[in-house]
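Figure 3 (text version): structure tokens given as input.
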């Protein structure tokens, strides 16, 4: 073993980011859902989001702007996306739903409330979908893979 590797073993590990830093420069994964029935979605990564000043409406507008401009989302432009819902928060357990959390209506983001007050944290996953499509899925919760 060389002296360089033994010296680096004693180097202190930098502390984790504080919640203040996480709330001012968060990374969010937006799960843009084209079809719940066919489990068709694509992830949109948004960086440097201030969770304390950004509202649900602001996040929706940022997401829609990215869908309108990024070529990877061209097939998604025919859907009217109108609802954001927390799918998963970092360091918490995930539900068994593969495409969207059902029965968790308290996780739908209020358009006028800050993301921080809505329970969004750094590295959260948020579903973006059409509410009418979601209600249709709840009435007949089947998934097709054809």
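Below: residues designed for each position.
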């Amino acid at each position: 073993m060389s002296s360089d590797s033994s010296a680096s073993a004693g180097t202190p590990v930098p502390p984790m980011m504080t919640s203040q830093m996480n709330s001012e420069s968060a990374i969010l994964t937006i799960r843009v859902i084209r079809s719940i029935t066919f489990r068709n979605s694509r992830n949109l990564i948004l960086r440097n989001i201030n969770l304390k000043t950004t509202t649900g409406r602001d996040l929706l507008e940022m997401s829609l702007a990215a869908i309108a401009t990024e070529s990877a989302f061209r097939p998604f432009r025919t859907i009217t996306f109108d609802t954001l819902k927390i799918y998963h928060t970092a360091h918490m357990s995930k539900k068994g739903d593969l495409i969207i959390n059902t029965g968790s209506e308290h996780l739908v983001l209020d358009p006028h409330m800050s993301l921080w007050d809505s329970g969004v944290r750094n590295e959260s996953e948020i579903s973006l979908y059409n509410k009418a499509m979601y209600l249709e899925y709840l009435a007949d919760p089947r998934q097709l893979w054809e």
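Helices lie at 3-9, 19-24, 56-69, 131-139.
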